[in-house]
Amino acid sequence: MENKENTTNDGHAHGHDHGAHAEISHVEKPGYYEILEISIRELMIEKKLIGPDEVRRQIEVLDSRSPALGAKLVARAWTDPEFKKRLLENGNAAAEELGITIYDDTAFTVMENTDSVHHIIVCTLCSCYPRAVLGLPPDWYKSKEYRSRAVREPRAVLMEFGTNIPLETEIHVNDSTANQRYMVLPLRPAGTDGFSMEQLEKLVTRDTMIGVSIPRLTD
Q: CATH for 7-28+66-210?
């Protein structure tokens, strides 16, 4: 799907503090794929193909990941043009440079926001998400409403997050898959030339790396 309002990168094989908007919520019961995952996991444990300790260790890996890792990538890209080039060309390799492993062997692609293009991330089929660099996805990201509306009316969804994108700026919707995960490299805010890496990282939130918000200077 591609037009000036909405360009989608898809081929499905299978981050703002959002307290101000109540339109997108996650109140649905466990879906087919979630129930299937639980059933297969329990069956594999019962058949001794995997053990509870292996499941626990993987959960610990997931719990150790947070948006702070993605923020390090963004801040480094803002301050190091050569790293930014490598990050946009090969997200997996660039993340490894900072000691961040993409443990699930998915392709990790970083999409750069510019004055003319704004990227937003979604998974239209389920909840594929760059967990290796952002941690667990928020509930609203997994909701059917966000997954469908982000594609149909991305500008309206962004406005509900308090993000107003100029009409002359194209919005590209990037549809994650089981093998392909996306992250947004947001625009660096003006007036941050003298900021340290730590200060820059604090400007980068989970939602800015999903694309539903933009980094803002605080008072």
A: 3.90.330.10
